[in-house]
Amino acid sequence: MKILVAVKRVLDANVKVRVKADGSGMELANAKMAMNPFCEIAVEQAVRMKEAGQAEEIIAVSMGPEACQEQLRTALALGCDRGILVTADGEIAPLQVAKMLRELVEREGAGLVILGKQSIDSDNNQVGQMLAALAGMGQGTFACGAELADGRILVTREIDGGEQTVSLELPAVVTTDLRLNEPRYASLPNIMKAKRKPVEQLTPVDLNVEMDSNLKTLRVSPPAERAAGIVVQSVEELVGKLRNEARVI
Amino acid sequence: MSILVVAEHDNRELKPATLNAVTCAMEIASYLENPAIHLLVAGHDCAAVANAGAAIAGMGKVIQTDAAFLAQQLPENMAPLLRELAGDYSHILAPASTTGKNFMPRLAALLDVAQISDVSAVESADTFVRPIYAGNALATVQSSDQVKVITVRSTAFDTAETDSDRVPITSFEFCLEQDLSRFVSENLSVSERPELTSASVVISGGRGMQNGENFMMLEKIADKLNAAVGASRAAVDAGFVPNDMQVGQTGKIVAPDLYIAVGISGAIQHLAGMKDSKVIVAINKDAEAPIFQVADFGLVADLFKALPELEQAL
Question: Exposure of A29 by Cβ count < 10 A (0-12 exposed, 13-18 middle, 19+ buried)?
């Protein structure tokens, strides 16, 4: 079985984000970029399945500027076998990403697609579900467990009230939640080896996908600041303030 | 034009998040000509939910689709059902719960339209505000799609009234056979306390709690305040408590009247889940902890001394 893993280049999770003064987006110039943390979990899951003899090949896919090469190389250093970079400028809408992934899934004959449940920049949480719809596959979103059994995959999902397990026909789409696994670090020899692994470059035109989205971002603004609070000296004072000033207890 | 709201429920009870989505729908309706708001209750043996939905203020009618294959509202079943209904609507809304987030993007792809996630404000019938970067920025987005498929951030909208005259419930028959996805099992947390996302008081513990047993101290206070108990991702990752208690960017988003953060440092990802609470209290022994920057009332103290005192004082 071939596993397709999608990886997104995002602002590093540890960098403090700032909105551009003109409201056109975020300050990303010269900022440290990294692989989306949920995508790291997706890569790890694919590598573990390959190590367990459940998959023969892992293909990492990224979409965006040329610089996404960095995140693809990281995925290759972690154990993916080859990469596909679809170069496109600007923001790519989730539906367009899903359409391109569908083409690649078909072209590669992937038996399983693993993606992060959301990216920490746009926080959409859509691509996996959209891909599953377009490709006519079942979806196991927010996965904290995934096990192959009898030609299907059992996915345990984090849901609001607890956990839910579903059984999906293969090929299927799985999106990762935080507790699925703990991603490894790439070793230096593997980082060196990754440089020699093949990365194919494509464009949206090669995949016959129209990049126009009907959803436009008009502006981006910072959230309202909270007024500074006060420090109380004792539990007694705290309870007094909550009762008499804030009136919330 | 009409708006369809998809009810959040467990076949027995209508979940409060539905009422927030209805309020969002009413705000959108205020920009439409001759608007009507319909509620879809899709499930199995869910008549009680449809009845509860029929009493929500502002509703035009309730559509009930009752079938065994809809019992868990799996997205492989919900999306085709909603596609069948979509032609009558300009907007389809669902709460941004793990259920809504599961089937709404699938529906949008079937309709070949964008999906708008976690809408927190309505600017017009086609323009909405949604948080990005864990709430560190707000994006204003405009959709030119024929049908706007929207998930609603519950904490951003008031709850609609539920004591209005009952509207008619119509039944919509829908059949589907698919084997892409089968429900296997569910393991739900049982609690006597209010749900995290709808409680008016939430008390959460972080890594400073040191272990799971110490969460009992929070539970005792929660009992006195009729509060829900939450946790930071650090506390969940450390194995103190289950993940369904997690408040944050990757957990639940809460905005209670009172949020008490105990032993929580205030990582960006936690703040993203609670900073819209009306009053925030922080109890932490580290005076430099970032949680104090968002707290209305901060108490620099050892939580193991402060919590028993707090329980006494309530």
Answer: exposed
For residue A162, the one-letter residue type is G
Band of pLDDT at residue A228, cut at 50, 70 and 90: confident
AA letter at B290:
P
Residue of B nearest to A163 (CA): B187
Return residues 211-270 of B near A (CB < 8 Å): 225, 233, 236-237, 242-244, 249-250, 252, 257-258, 268
Q: Is B177 in CB contact (< 8 Å) with chain A?
A: no
Which chain A positions have a beta carbon within 8 Å of B281's beta carbon?
A: 238, 242
Question: What is the predicted ipTM?
Answer: 0.96
Rounded to whole angstroms, the Cα distance separating B309 from A240 reads 13
Collapsing DSSP to helix, strand or coil, A18 comes out as: coil
Gyration radius of chain A's alpha carbons: 21
pLDDT tens sequence across B170-216: 999 999 999 999 999 999 988 889 989 889 999 999 999 999 999 99
Exposure letters B89-104 (e unless 16+ CB within 10 A, then b): bbbbbbbbbbbbbbbb
- Cβ-based neighbours of A244, under 8 Å, separated by 6 or more: none
Average pLDDT of span B276-291? 96
Q: Report the percent of chain B where pLDDT is more than 90.
A: 92
* CA A66 – CA A188 distance, rounded (Å): 23
Which tokens sit at A217? Answer: 């971002």
Nearest to B219 by CA among B201, B232, B236: B201
